[in-house]
Amino acid sequence: MNSSASNDLQPTKPPVQGGIASPGSAVLESLAKPRDAAWAEIVCILVFAAVLSLWGLRHGPALSDHEAIVATGARDVVQNGHWLIPSVGHQAAIRKPPLRFWLASLSSFVIDPGTSTPDVSVAASRFPSAIAAVLTVLVVLLLARCMFEPRTGTIAAAGLASTAGIFFFAHDAQIEMVLTFFSTCAVACFWMATQPGTRRRVLWWALFYLSLGLAMLSKAPLPLATVVLPLAVWWFVVLPLARYHHILDDESAAEGSTRIALFKEQGRQFLKMWLLPGALLFLLVFGPWPIYVAMTKSNALDLWRIEYLDRFSGDLSSQTHSAFYYIPIAFGLVFPWSLLLPQAVASPFSRATKANRKALLFALTWVTVQFVFLSSASFKRPHYLATALPGMAILLGPMVERFFFAFRVNGRKWLTIGIVVLVAMIVAAAVWGSKAVSKEMPDATAGFAMAAVLFFVGALAWLITYAANYRASSFVVLLCTVGATFALSWNALGQQGMIDERAADLMAALDKTAIGPDDPITWVVGRPDARLMYYRHLNVRPLFTTLELAPKRKGRRGIPEWLIEDAMTKLRERLQSRDKEYFIIPGMFWDAYESKVSDLANIVCRVKSPFGKKGRNDIVVFTQSWNNDWKKAGASGPG
Q1: Which residues contact 326 (CB under 8 A, 6 or more apart)?
Q2: Where are the domains of the chain?
């Protein structure tokens, strides 16, 4: 390359317009200088995170079932004032703490228009997650800039803001992103409070216990495993062992100290962690709600036993997943930085990262302990890994910086091979993705095609600028390409409407009947689909509430015979009643037990499922044999 050519890597002064440097050039200049802590880049990263997180909150896809639980519970808070124990489907929503409902309710007061019958919109339900995503990026930005050089910390935060995981959870009304924010705050405050020479240590400890309490109020008891357990392993195991083996080349290395002496020292330091006042602050934040529920709701402790202990042991569900379940999910969550993840995990043990080894070991412990704990649990879900995202971003920060600003390709041959391989991978992914989308979500095909074309063009621009050694520009191009692709993909999902085809078909079938909000509907097996309550305002309740069942059964794996017999008895009593009522049951249960109620039942409709065989996943709606009020004018019978 010609040495006289303009280059992002050259420490040139930013161009001046009227005596003031342009924000764009200031960002590129600060990225090119490792020690430059420019406010322009911090502001730009937060704006980037805010735009992506807030994009399309009003116009994205319909709420999922679990998102609709949040929106329905928040609606109960807004309309009925049930702040302490919100209700969803005539059930007390006490499986998890109520912070998710409180935040959605407060969001509704702010961004929903005032009406005589207040409601909670889709945007209001998802808004707390979007704000939590931006704040999480901010916390990682501040923490990583303290751990590493300013540019490395900035790149770690920018990398987090551009991941598929942050974008997805920012647009999900569930509590995962809020939980991730408070968990990250707690971990960051712990790091700051335990660093030598830290000023205002008491303030950091107070913020740690406050954040931990709010994390528990988000989704107890998960933070005990995703925050407290990793920090305990770091403090009592990793840190003393690293010092003993002189892995850490800093002031903490204790020359000649025995292993036992180092462990004892960690124990003595533990007693200085503001334990008593911190515990009181933690209990003040988290304690009142579970105590109130346990005192006012019978069987609440039995319900929590099922939800928490049986969830870990596997008694909650008959579904089992491999111990390696979370590995591909981790790679997907950190896209587009997935290929750098293995090197990031190994980075604490590399000589090239010796100066940052303590910070990298801390982040690795934070991620690994969560990963091992979640993988050891029998009940696994993709969103459980959300709290590991900030730690993975901190591990990735130095790797992304090295890839963009320190790595050099020797020879055009290898550069050409790399470009060809990447282009081939992009084309193959686009072809495979287009086939999958056209089959599963035909209404979204055009939107996804536009996103694929945009990503391909942006990827080429990134490759060209990277090959020309305009590395700061290539980094910004990649961020913008990924962000625009996410945004267009989200719009495409919005064109699809409701992603769950079976739920959409059920609502469409009920729309063809005269069943309305005032008609009682009983969901016979399991928990009612919250989307019926949220989108159609239907009066749906379960045949048995969770509090009724909690003391009678262990876990939710399978359905015991005694419960089936009780359900059949209750169904026959309801079908013999002269009070109009409708029932919804899975096709597999209707087919198995139809003979026990067929003399009293009248089928309203059977919604065919595109999944499964022989109607096992169909949904059957039925009512009393004498009830014909569900028929609209011109309706001829069951659909």
Answers
A1: 371, 374, 375, 380, 385
A2: 174-404, 427-496, 501-624
